[in-house]
Amino acid sequence: MIRSFYIDNFKSLVDFRLPPAKQQLGPFTCLVGLNGAGKSTVLQAFDFIGHLANGQIGAWLKQREWKRADLTSQFLKKKVLIKFELGVDVPSIGHIVWSGTYNTTLMRCTAEAVTLDGVEQVLHISDGQLLVSGTDTKDSVQYPLRSMKFEGSTLSFVNVRDVHEALGALKHVAANLRSLDLLSPQSMRRRAKDAADIGYGGERLSAFIHGLPPADRTQLAKALKHFYPQVAELATKALQAGWKDLRIVEQYDSANLFPTRLETDARQVNDGLLRVLAVLSQVSVSEPEDSTHQPTGLGQSCVLFDEIENGINPELMQKLVELLLHAKRQVIVTTHSPLVLNYLPDDVAKESVLLLFRNTAGHTKVIRLFDLPSTQKKLKLLGPGEVFVDTHLEALPAEAMALLDTQAP
Q1: What is the DSSP letter of 251?
Q2: What is the CA radius of gyration of the chain?
Q3: Closest Cα partner for 174 from 304, 25, 49, 4?
Q4: What is the dihedral sign for C-alpha 32, 34, 38, 40?
Q5: Across 239-289, where does the E strand assignment appear?
Q6: What gap in Å lies between CA 140 and CA 123, rounded to an integer?
Q7: Domains in the chain and their CATH numbers?
Q8: Can you state the percent helix, strand and coil of the chain, rounding each to 5?
Q9: What is the pLDDT of residues 356-401, one digit of tens each?
Q10: Are the C-beta atoms of 202 and 187 separated by less than 8 Å?
Q11: C-alpha–C-alpha distance, residues 283 and 118, integer Å
Q12: Model-level pTM?
């Protein structure tokens, strides 16, 4: 599970730490704030880290239609280095911290380190050499980086599973980070070929569902039926040239005028059902498998959703929030909807709802929403969503900055 995240010089994220200092991320996190506060940027930063681990930065930039220069902050002129740190807790292994410096010109990490429990240095770069410690010291490996061509992080080419167990766990968590901030029902209606994920916009949803093990597909259909009781089955079909077709099978009472069994092509399915299905496909099935198609057991991966309420009926939001709170994967969402907050228990809301805002320098900062004196007072009388509705978000940055100043060492 990801416990902490730091990044500097990524868009509006300058010296940015999530969550605030001396706190930890839990299984569920909800980011709120005004438009332009940096919520989507935080999800993009996580996505950037995931593609560093995979060594796929070039393809990632192309898919988002970005240039290398788009990554760095306009507040820090002429800086090409992005610094990052990811803290991960893995049962039976310990606390793993991955830190590094990414050079946007070279498109690779020029400094990098992985430490275990704050003591053991598992991986680091020194004098142009990558030094990797094995679980058994005799298995340590050196790589001459000057003669190697790679993109992103050194994790992208180190055989992490055969060297140190901490590296295998870290790679599993980082490489399976998924930011679905571009989800689009129009994309989800497309036929697709074989896919390991649903794609940024959900454009590979049909192929992803087609490739699920039977037990996972049954579980996914059962989860969707909880939202749409008429759903009986998720049907897929392999077409010519490898294309996969997705159909939603619905079952109606035979006494109705509708057919007993109705199959609807994904291209004709309503937006809300497709969005719910995309979310369920990420949080209701088993953890990602490794290249041998075996569950890794290396720790809980994380999935991120932007504006989770988009296109979904308010009547379904309670079910969706409850699902996210008990998901099989760590979940981070952004929202503008008080409904999302209103279905959170007070104790969960206090810990998990984080306010993002811009300080006077334009940098994105973060604080727990219910750490603010004004919202704490209201929470004694109102539910979290009601507090959100009764609060002028424009007034919160000044209150947040004043509170952070008093907490500064």
Answers
A1: E
A2: 22
A3: 49
A4: positive
A5: 244-251, 261-265
A6: 10
A7: 2-176+295-407 (3.40.50.300), 180-283 (no CATH)
A8: 35, 25, 35
A9: 999 999 999 999 999 999 999 999 999 999 999 999 999 999 999 9
A10: yes
A11: 31
A12: 0.90
